[in-house]
Amino acid sequence: MGGAGILLLLLAGVGMGEAWRPPKGKCPLGCSCSKDSALCEGSPDLPESFAPTLLSLSLVRTGVTQLKAGSFLRVPSLHLLSLANNHLETLPRFLFRGLETLTHVDLRGNPFQCDCRVLWLLQWIPTVNASVGTGACASPTALAHMQLHHLDPKTFKCRAIELSWFQTVGESALGVEAFSYQGEPHVVLAQPFAGRCLILTWDYSLQRFRQEEELSAPSVVSCKPLVLGPRLFVLAARLWGGSQLWARPGPDLRLAPLQALAPRRLLRPNDAELLWLDGQPCFVVADASKAGSTTLLCRDGPGFYPRQSLHAWHRDTDAEALELDGRPHLLLASASQRPVLFHWFGGRFERRTDIPEAEDVYATRHFQASGDVFLCLTRYIGDSMVMRWDGSMFRLLQQLPSRGAHVFQPLLIARDQLAILGSDFAFSQVFRLEPDRGLLEPLQELGPPALVAPRAFAHITMAGRRFLFAACFKGPTQIYQHHELDLSA
């Protein structure tokens, strides 16, 4: 009998002169059994016929290369368990579940692969009252010969995400917005060729998205929703024919035109955003016409009326509302100069600064992470950029190749801060912010089906499931489902 087996038998209170073999069939072939202990040495297979009252078990220098999940469920009384000096590269998750009386586990001498499959073991060791002889890693090379109990579970990246195709919405779209109305998530698509703002909701019987309502909006570029209690407003910014505000007074009514918005000011809208100023809802509409100006429209009585004209003659392509230093700010991107940052002061927006080293920026979007404010800047030619606010201006943090991009949009989905870089010439790329480095790292490409000229992204959570909408200018809108994958399983 090997030394390890003798030690286990002694610890279990069985003397060498007390050897006892249970009835025929209870002690597996290749094992030596006593009253409540078993030693299996050199056996090519894992025995399965141990007595349920077994207290100590030693499987030493066997030919076993892997164990099945639940291998020890039939011996719940084990105190001592040795799997030393075998060929085990990994152990099935929760192998020791149900063994509440364990006092010692020996895993030494196995060539463990210290990847995500060992994470559950690292997390389990500190939670048990048993002493554990863990042994060392055989791979990867960077961890070779390191003792398992010296590994930090926090350094293992064992959670992955995947965006897989779910549904197609037939018509092309320039914009997509998610909103909640009467406790139910909705999505509205700006579909210029179909000439409408299309509102989608979830069909619980078919388990897919369906049309709820549409409003007529030829040449629409943006459909911006606003919910005020039971009332729903939708701003339809249109290239021709004038922009309109639609309203639904209550949940049982349909949307109807409420107001023509600033017909002499909104000449060629390119983007619209919602923001709150001094407790009141406002819209800002970026105007790309040569002689136009971006217009701030705020609520006054039943409608929305011009409050301020901004950035005249600069052909603005995008507006982004954000908060910096506890105050409302507005960032305008244009075809003629670097993005300009305005701050709300004295009841109006005043120019604060511009963004250095940011020429030819088509659009901007911001996100927050770890107390910092970041900015994603889209460039059709050249590299798109990620910047971080330093308290006085945005400074360059990262550049990403982006030929043919019209959208670089950050989205917080579950626990993941993502950013999607759409392209007219290649697959759209999904990036994830790595907290340790504070940089965006590539995650996956979107497709198939490939996105054709993507222009906007939005996400929505419905019935416990998370979805990503991708509005495409030259193809149908695609919907992807967000999945979380546990690589340690």
Automatic annotation (TrEMBL):
UniProt entry keywords in alphabetical sequence: Glycoprotein, Leucine-rich repeat, Repeat, Signal
UniProt xrefs under PROSITE patterns: EAR
Pfam families in the cross-refs: EPTP, LRR_8
Database matches in InterPro entries: Cys-rich_flank_reg_C, EAR, EPTP, Leu-rich_rpt, LGI_related, LRR_dom_sf
GO biological process, one term: myelination in peripheral nervous system
Stretches assigned to the LRRCT domain: 110-159
Signal sequence, start to end: 1-19
GO cellular component labels: extracellular space
SUPFAM superfamilies noted in UniProt: L domain-like
TM ranges: none
Positions of EAR repeats: 162-204, 208-250, 254-301, 303-346, 348-391, 393-435, 439-484
PANTHER family: LEUCINE-RICH REPEAT LGI FAMILY MEMBER 4, LEUCINE-RICH REPEAT-CONTAINING PROTEIN
Protein name: Leucine-rich repeat LGI family member 4 isoform X2
